[in-house]
């Protein structure tokens, strides 16, 4: 009897622990989904490190649950093979990348998303968890939309303690309104699906209805044309599907009429009278060709990168760092991404990466087709057909469809909060395949348990080490970025950041800049400071051979030391890496001024001003006047200004 009681108590303890770990994983995933959007999309390093730490917690709890569960199982739908394949490809591509630092950061994101995907598929597949996650996201989106409404109505550009440059457009808790729209476009279909097809209480339905109205208004005040299009297409798809369900036909038709009529009335009587609407819609008609040329320039650069590196691409997250070599003259700012996730995928990961992702999309769609009949309740003529399973299936599917549409003109998949939301929906929908067949369940015996635990332990160790390493780097970078910081102290803080992360080429460049600026101020130690700067620029060249500014600044320091013949080679290499950059060309003109070749200098300054004539191009504007004065004096026979003036 005592043994039986002990066994029963042990069984109960194991079940309690299993439930504890399961709920813990749910809590951490919810924390990630809530924190990311509130932290401006988790784009900043500190915010991403928080998300990374929470992901490590998910992995630890999953590993513990494997050993405390009485009968551990692994749910492995076909898309898991595709996710695993891309993750392994990301690791291999990182090991062969040209710029180690950015490739590592991108690979870490891929690995994190993969672990989250597997953890959600295998731990949060129950219907109640999908509902909890969905309702949490809807309420979160409604709250942020309320904040966005206040921004719009108060004409505020404040996002927490930061100032957004998007005047007249609300961005909620995101820095960019387009990214905020990318978040909302995945929430709105979920809310509408639960309202129309969910098996929920009337009070809950009313709350979701008001939340959906708030989210809809949030989408409107972003004035994101891509977001508007994605939301419209997703809602049309959702309502179109429900119209063919006889139990949902009338509510779906009524909502479609209300949205069409209400949207038209709101646009005609309110939206068209707003300055933001005029600037974003009516103003676009007047300057659409220029704006489209800007996008085409980024897309053309991505296409050329892909064709030049057809199979494996330029490297993970390399697009922005290789862009200067490919950019047209009309784009002088750094684009960050290609503003088209599909072209960005091909540019960074090549045809191999594109094939893997396309295979994943195909497998996912096939899985949806296999699942659709198993998530629908039997429709009845009187009051039947309500199903939370069906609501999430339709809402999640159309949410991902909205993300896919918006990705044609933006880069939401590179905003961590939006990408993680997409991964979560993908995982929850993929887990629904268990309704269609039991063949994707695998019993985890000891060898497989050890293998999965080893993979989780390796992931925890690597991500934890990388978190500590980057956290130290960001601490010292934040100290160096404080204003005002004297250049000697700035250099000291940056060097400590470089000690923490010796592969960050941007830090080495900033250290070189700190020493160069001090050298150019003059003083007895100018030569020593210039040579120290040369050493840091040289390190930057080793870490990122595509960064032309390192070569340009290296040449400037050589000119400053009087080594003009040696400097010319570095300016030529800088120009080869940035042939259409106004700043590089202007600095090449500066080099010609140092050597006394004023005719060549004038040609550089004039071309730099043709490319960018804005007031920011001070170097070309001011030096062109000096050069023209010098050439005029030389032509008239008067005294000539000394070289290097």
What attributes characterize this protein structure?
two-stranded antiparallel ribbon, mainly alpha, two-stranded antiparallel sheet, single chain, 3 domains, Serine Threonine Protein Phosphatase 5, Tetratricopeptide repeat, 645 residues, globular
Number of structurally distinct domains: 3
Query: Strand order across the biggest sheet?
Result: 1-4
Mean pLDDT: 92
Q: Looking at the chains present, what oligomeric state does this protein adopt?
A: single chain
Describe the 3D structure:
With 645 residues, the chain is mostly helical. The protein has 3 domains: 2-434 and 443-458, no CATH class; 483-580, Serine Threonine Protein Phosphatase 5, Tetratricopeptide repeat; 595-645. It is 74% helix and 2% strand. The protein is built from 23 helices and 4 strands. It has a two-stranded antiparallel ribbon with strand order 1-4. The longest helix is centred in the N-terminal third of the chain and has 37 residues, at 2-38.
Q: Could you give a short description of this structure?
A:
Helices cover 74% and strands 2% of the residues.
Topology:
Elements: H1 2-38, H2 45-68, E1 73-75, H3 79-95, H4 100-123, H5 127-153, E2 158-159, E3 162-163, H6 177-197, H7 202-222, H8 225-243, H9 249-269, H10 275-308, H11 319-326, H12 341-371, H13 388-406, H14 416-431, E4 441-443, H15 446-481, H16 487-500, H17 505-520, H18 526-543, H19 548-560, H20 564-577, H21 582-595, H22 598-611, H23 618-636
Antiparallel strand pairs: 1-4, 2-3
């Amino acid at each position: 009897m005592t043994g039986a009681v002990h066994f029963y108590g042990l069984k109960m303890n194991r079940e309690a622990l299993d439930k504890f770990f399961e709920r813990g994983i749910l809590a951490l995933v919810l924390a990630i989904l809530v924190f990311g959007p509130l932290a401006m999309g988790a784009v900043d390093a500190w915010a991403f490190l928080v998300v990374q730490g929470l992901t490590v917690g998910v992995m630890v709890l999953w590993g513990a649950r494997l050993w405390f569960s009485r009968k551990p199982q692994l749910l492995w739908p076909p898309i898991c093979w595709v996710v695993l394949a891309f993750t392994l490809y990301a690791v291999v591509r990182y090991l062969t990348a040209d710029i180690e630092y950015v490739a590592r950061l991108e690979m870490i994101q891929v690995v994190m998303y993969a672990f989250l995907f597997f953890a959600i598929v295998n731990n949060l597949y129950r219907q109640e968890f999908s509902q909890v996650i969905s309702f949490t996201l809807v309420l979160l989106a409604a709250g942020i939309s309320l904040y966005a409404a206040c921004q719009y109505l108060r004409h505020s550009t404040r996002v927490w303690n930061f100032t957004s440059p998007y005047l007249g457009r609300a961005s909620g808790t995101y820095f960019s309104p387009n990214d905020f729209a990318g978040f909302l476009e995945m929430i709105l279909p979920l809310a509408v699906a639960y309202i129309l097809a969910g098996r929920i209480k009337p009070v809950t339905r009313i709350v979701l209805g008001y939340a959906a109205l708030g989210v809809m208004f949030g989408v409107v005040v972003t004035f994101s044309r891509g977001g508007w299009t994605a939301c419209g297409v997703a809602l049309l798809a959702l309502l179109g599907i429900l119209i063919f369900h006889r139990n949902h036909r009338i509510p779906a038709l009524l909502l479609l009429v209300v949205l069409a009529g209400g949207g038209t009335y709101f646009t005609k009587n309110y939206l068209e009278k707003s300055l933001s609407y005029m600037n974003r819609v009516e103003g676009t008609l007047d300057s659409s060709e220029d704006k489209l040329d800007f996008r085409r320039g980024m897309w053309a650069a991505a296409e050329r990168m892909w064709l030049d590196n057809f199979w494996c691409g330029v490297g993970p997250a390399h697009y922005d760092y290789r862009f200067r070599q490919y950019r047209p003259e009309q784009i002088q700012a750094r684009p960050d991404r290609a503003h088209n996730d599909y072209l960005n995928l091909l540019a960074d990961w090549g045809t191999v990466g594109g094939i893997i992702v396309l295979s994943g999309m195909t497998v996912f769609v096939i899985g949806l087709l296999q699942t659709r009949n198993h998530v629908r309740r039997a429709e009845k003529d009187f009051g039947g057909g309500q199903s939370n399973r069906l609501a999430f299936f339709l809402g999640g599917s159309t949410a991902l469809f909205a993300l896919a549409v918006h990705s044609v003109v933006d880069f939401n998949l590179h905003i961590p909060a939006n990408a993680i939301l997409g991964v979560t929906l993908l995982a929850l929908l993929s887990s629904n395949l268990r309704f269609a067949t039991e063949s994707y369940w695998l019993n985890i015996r000891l060898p497989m348990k050890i293998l999965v635990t080893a993979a989780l332990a390796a992931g925890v160790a690597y991500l934890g080490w990388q978190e500590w390493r980057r956290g130290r780097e960001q601490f010292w970078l934040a100290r160096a970025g404080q204003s005002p910081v004297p250049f000697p102290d700035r250099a000291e803080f940056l060097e400590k950041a470089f000690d923490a992360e010796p592969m960050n080429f941007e830090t080495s460049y900033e250290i070189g800049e700190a020493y160069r600026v001090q050298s150019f101020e003059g003083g007895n130690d100018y030569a020593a400071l210039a040579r120290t700067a040369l050493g840091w620029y040289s390190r930057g060249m080793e870490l990122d051979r595509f960064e032309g500014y390192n070569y340009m600044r290296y040449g400037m320091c050589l000119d400053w030391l009087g080594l003009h013949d040696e400097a010319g080679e570095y300016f030529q290499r800088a120009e080869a890496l940035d042939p259409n950059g106004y700043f590089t060309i202007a600095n090449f003109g500066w080099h010609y001024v140092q050597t006394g070749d004023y005719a060549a200098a004038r040609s550089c300054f004039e071309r730099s001003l043709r490319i960018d004539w804005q007031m920011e191009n001070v170097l070309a504007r001011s030096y062109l006047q000096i050069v023209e004065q010098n050439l005029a004096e030389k032509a008239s026979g008067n005294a000539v200004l000394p070289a290097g003036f």
